[in-house]
Design brief:
Blueprint (H helix, E strand, L loop, with lengths): L3 E3 L1 E5 L4 E2 L11 E8 L5 E4 L3 E2 L14 E3 L5 E20 L8 E7 L6 E7 L5 E18 L8 E14 L5 E8 L6 E6 L3 E4 L6 E5 L6 E2 L5 E5 L7 E2 L2 E2 L3 E5 L5 E2 L14 E7 L2 E4 L7 E4 L2 E7 L8
Antiparallel strand pairs: 1-17, 1-22, 2-16, 3-19, 4-12, 5-8, 6-7, 7-12, 8-11, 8-12, 9-10, 9-11, 13-14, 13-18, 15-16, 18-21, 19-20, 23-26, 24-25
Length: about 300
């Protein structure tokens, strides 16, 4: 089949659905990492010697930093003022080699007894998000226990991300298969909907929506919809919807070029002309004279392209 992508799945029931299909009212079924930063402007303390004010880590300014050059472990504690539901740390480190490596995240409600939430190792990236199980604590502590290089690290921004509620999307699992690369193997994929709601135009139906970037791409064969009633709260006029499994062939997919077959694309010839003006500037060294570049014209002609293989 041609490569195609899907952004939504419609599920039609025999009875009317009742209640909040999204699953967010009155109580969310689950939680995920949101975008709201709970740490900005909050009181912070740090352990061991630092370079730069520790408040720079939570001032919301990516150009100020807080760093360390001393004994490990190196830590920062953020007082959220009240017990908050959190689900992740956002961290922006230096673009150089000076970055933290191994870490552990802890929570406390008295700033004395600490519970470890997650331990791991940061990637060799300046910017990343550490996701962890939803936690309810007032104080959050991030401990660094090693560096990628040398004996220092610089933190430009640290955010503690609020946990936000999710609904019936956590109850759906959609396994399928797709080709990820040209001439690649057929991969098993688990597709995750980002939202569940009543269909706007189809009666007795719900709409599963998938990410704008992603969805089910280049899907091969059938997809399977698994609904787990222990994780969801879908209900109809006859009572709670039981767990079910339905296999179907995707239709109405957005067609895109097939990476496993030659596609023909015609491109009309075009001429591109660039005029370079006079350029005059001082010599790079010394204090005598200037360098002048005379104007000239560059012409590039793009010829017909008969076919490409995307």
């Amino acid at each position: 089949m041609s490569k195609a992508e899907g952004k939504s799945i419609v599920i039609k029931f025999t009875e009317d659905l009742v209640g909040d299909v999204s699953g967010l009212t009155p109580t969310p079924i689950g939680f995920k990492t949101g975008n709201v930063d709970l740490a900005q402007g909050k009181a912070v303390t740090a352990g061991n010697a630092s370079s730069g004010a520790v408040t720079n880590a939570v001032d919301g300014n990516d150009s100020t930093y807080w760093g360390t050059y001393s004994t490990l472990p190196w830590w920062i504690i953020v007082d959220l003022v009240n017990i908050k539901k959190t689900a992740g740390f956002y961290i922006l480190q230096s673009n150089s080699y000076y970055r933290a490596r191994a870490y552990n995240i802890q929570g406390s409600n008295d700033n004395a007894s600490w519970i470890t939430i997650k331990s791991g190792e940061l990637e060799k990236l300046a910017e990343q998000i550490i996701q962890y199980p939803v936690s309810d604590y007032r104080y959050m502590r991030l401990n660094f226990t090693s560096y990628w290089y040398g004996s220092k690290a610089y933190i430009y921004t640290l955010k503690i991300l609020e946990a936000v509620g999710v609904g019936n999307e956590v109850a759906f699992a959609i396994p399928g298969q797709e080709y990820k690369y040209v001439n690649g193997v057929l991969l098993d994929i688990d597709y995750k909907p980002t939202s569940v709601g009543l269909h706007p135009t189809v009666d007795k139906a719900i709409l599963l929506t998938f990410p704008n970037m992603g969805g089910f791409n280049n899907v091969e064969g059938d997809l399977t919809v698994n609904y787990d009633a222990t994780k969801g709260n879908l209900s109809g006029t006859g009572g709670a919807v039981e767990s079910f499994i339905e296999v179907f062939t995707p239709t109405e997919l957005i067609q895109t070029p097939n990476p496993n077959a030659e596609e023909y694309v015609s491109v009309a010839p075009v001429e591109v002309v660039a005029d370079l003006l006079d350029i005059e500037y001082p010599k790079a060294y010394g204090d005598m004279g200037t360098i002048t570049v005379a104007p000239f014209e560059v012409t590039a002609t793009l010829i017909d392209v008969e076919n490409i293989n995307p």
